[in-house]
Automatic annotation (TrEMBL):
This is Exodeoxyribonuclease III. Residues 4-248 form the Endonuclease/exonuclease/phosphatase domain. Keywords: Hydrolase, Magnesium, Manganese, Metal-binding. GO terms for molecular function: DNA binding; double-stranded DNA 3'-5' DNA exonuclease activity; endonuclease activity; metal ion binding. Its EC number is 3.1.11.2. Probably binds two magnesium or manganese ions per subunit. InterPro entries: AP_endonuc_1, AP_endonuclease_F1_BS, Endo/exonu/phosph_ase_sf, Endo/exonuclease/phosphatase, ExoIII-like. SUPFAM superfamilies: DNase I-like (SSF56219).
């Protein structure tokens, strides 16, 4: 089973890129971020024509998340995070799909630091961590996938010394990510590639993609019930080089089959 996450940076403006990649890769489950479209503008007809069912949580011009499933309709289990009734940002959606609970998230950027946007980021992280703890206790296979806007270590950024005071690399943010992982989550890419420089994002400026001046900010966290199924993980970097591409590339994991316990029938 192939599960992917892709910050599309505008689902309608980048729709040809998304559809081309879906046809090329044929992932079973896809988490999308930064739809930048209200619910009624989500291109569900084109998505269904490509062979996918979908749920989505849109927002005009900003944010927005969606979960796609090949030949299936995800069953929505949660929309948004608890803990702040005034937070109307479309940043989290969750579904049961193909016997897995999938949480698709778009964590706040937080820049500039210091300031209210950075404070909001840390509070959102706290709310996500509380939900993640609940999901850990649910005794179901869970994947938390999306754009975390965090480079967890120096290995995840091309020149860490330049990012010390950026909200994606501030020590407070990296500690928040580490505390989340300590609940028992497995960072899929880093688990399989512990010392390799792997990036998922390249800025549009300063020829970043050609120079491979990237960041790893799109992550998969797997709970202990699904982590043993992890077989491979990577980034479709070439998609970032397509015409009118997002500044993110699709990131993916491959899961092995579900291991079921055999039962012996008695006469």
């Amino acid at each position: 089973m192939l599960v992917a996450t892709f910050n599309v940076n505008g689902v309608n403006g980048r729709l040809p890129v998304l559809l081309r990649w879906l046809e090329e890769r044929r992932p079973d489950i896809v988490c999308l971020q930064e739809l930048k479209a209200p619910d009624e503008k989500f291109p569900i007809k084109e998505i269904e024509k490509a062979g996918y069912g979908a749920i989505w949580h849109g927002q005009k011009s900003w944010n927005g998340v969606a979960i796609l499933a090949m030949g299936d309709a995800p069953e929505e289990t949660r929309r948004g995070l608890l803990g702040d009734k005034n937070d109307l940002h479309a940043r989290y959606i969750e579904a049961a799909v193909k016997e897995i609970v999938v949480g698709c998230l778009y964590l706040p950027n937080g820049n500039p630091y210091p300031g209210p946007k950075f404070d909001y980021k840390l509070k959102w992280f706290e709310r996500l961590t509380k939900l993640a703890n609940v999901l850990q206790a649910a005794d179901v296979p869970v994947i938390l996938a999306g754009d975390y806007n965090v480079m967890p270590t120096k290995l995840d950024v091309y020149k860490p010394e330049r990012w010390t005071d950026d909200a994606l690399f501030r020590i407070e943010v990296r500690e928040a990510y580490a505390n989340l992982v300590k609940q028992g989550w497995v960072d899929a890419i880093r688990h399989l590639h512990p010392s390799e420089r792997i990036y998922t994002f390249w800025d549009y400026f300063r020829n970043a993609y050609v120079r491979n001046a990237g960041l790893r900010i799109d992550h998969f966290l797997l709970n202990p019930l699904i982590a043993p199924r992890l077989k491979a993980a990577g980034v479709d970097k070439h998609v970032r080089g397509w015409e009118k591409a997002s500044d993110h590339a699709p990131t993916w994991i491959e899961l092995g089959p579900i291991k079921r316990t055999r039962t012996t029938k008695r006469a």
